[in-house]
Amino acid sequence: MKVETGFYATVAQARRASRIVIVGASLAGLRAAESLRAGGFSGSLTIIGEEPHPPYDRPPLSKAVLLGLSAPEHTELPGDSEVDARWILGTRATGLDLDANRIRLDGGGEIEFDQALLATGVRARPWPNPEEAALDGVFVLRTRDHAARLARSLAARPNRVLVIGGGFTGSEIASVCRELDLPVTVTERGPAPLVGALGGMLGGIAARLQRDHGVDLRTETSVTRLDGDGDGRVVRAHFTRGDPLEVDLVVVALGAVRNTEWLADSGIAAGPRGIACDTGCRVFDINGLITDHIFTAGDVARAPNPLYDYQMIALEHWGNAVGQAEVAAHNMLHAGRVRRAHLEVPAFWSSQFGVNIKSVGIPTFADQVAVTQGSLNQNRFVATYGHRGRVTAAVSFDQGKWMDFYRGLIESAAAFPPEFSVLDPPESTEIHPVRWRDPATLSHGPTVCVTGYFPDERTMSVIEGPRASAGHHWPS
Hints:
Layout: H1 6-15, E1 19-23, H2 27-38, E2 44-49, H3 64-67, E3 86-89, E4 93-97, E5 102-105, E6 110-112, E7 115-118, E8 122-124, H4 130-133, E9 138-139, H5 144-155, E10 161-164, H6 168-179, E11 184-188, H7 195-198, H8 200-212, E12 216-219, E13 223-228, E14 234-239, E15 245-246, E16 249-252, E17 256-258, E18 270-271, E19 274-276, E20 282-284, E21 290-296, E22 301-305, E23 311-315, H9 318-333, E24 347-352, E25 355-361, E26 368-375, E27 380-387, E28 390-397, H10 403-411, E29 431-433, E30 448-450, E31 460-463, E32 469-472
Parallel strand pairs: 1-2, 1-7, 2-3, 7-21, 9-16, 10-11, 10-16, 11-12, 19-22
Antiparallel strand pairs: 4-5, 5-6, 8-17, 13-14, 14-15, 18-19, 20-21, 22-23, 23-30, 24-25, 25-28, 26-27, 26-29, 27-28, 31-32
GO cellular component, one term: cytoplasm
InterPro entries: FAD-oxidoreductase/Apoptosis, FAD/NAD-bd_sf, FAD/NAD-binding_dom, FAD/NAD-linked_Rdtase_dimer_sf, Reductase_C
Cofactor: FAD
């Protein structure tokens, strides 16, 4: 019999781990499960999901489903039925015991594991007043069930739709309303829609797009109250500026909340910003040590990125969820030098008001921006973002074919402003400040969250007591 020793014994041991549990039955969880089986894992695999549905694709929910072009149940991701796993759906994880290697479930059950992947993602941020949030006609959009209910209500032809928040989700919903020829008002506490993700210059382009398509866009405006009638249905909205507005459908698009509360007191470095991990998706404990058998992936993961000064970054992007899931699965089955790091340049896309918006890199990690191709006036351009003299991101409006080229500039730390001869040169190469608005004043969050690490940033304090624990203080 061949006896494995040293490094190869460690690899073999990882492959023979008898029990792996994945918490989160969405895109990252499914892709990780597929990668584990494809990588040779033959042990017990359990997937826990809070929703009752098998994994499904979320991008169509704010587009095709709301337009009536696709049924909500037809958004399932391919491949889930082929994964040899025990699926526990419609059940929420409520705790993690690091000492006993157990996941606690709602209702009192427990699942033991040798390795665990935490992929609990995010949920829609609710309207802060619970009574107003419960009014008939007030919606959020994150899940398949949310999309099904909202699509039915839009199909009933409401007289006036109010979208609270001008981020990507709010803007896509407003676009759907105009495609359906529904009157829609969008309120945004910042100076323009998309300003939290793309900055002031491109936010101004987004504002023009909305108004050109008939959206009643109200910037630097907040909703202060929602009124209901005697039957509990929303009928009116009040604002910080202007008269109240009669509405019969309200969509709250205030960004997302990362699902980390269930990890309180677990000893895991988790909080409102996400679950901290290394580039190999291995989770840190509250002392900054690698747990080595706990991994994370997807919207909830918060990892350092070498391209961005090793700051801890959380991404709510489809491609990031897939990439991290595959890296996490590989590293659950391997050890040492063959482990991988997730170092892809982030990318995302959005379709709204007849324009395809694509991005590579992290626009929020920038203080300057310049148009490097195309025309702002024609809504057909590439804007390049820079920080400390190098290219950090690029965003295109109907010019997505160039994004691979700009990805190369980011990866090679090319100088900003870039100097090259391009097809379709811009009308002006003037460099502009990005003009980020203080996030505290925005009604939505960016899809990328750059959260530190600077030497003078204190993010944790130790609380003395019978059993020492850490209290997290998260920067704004």
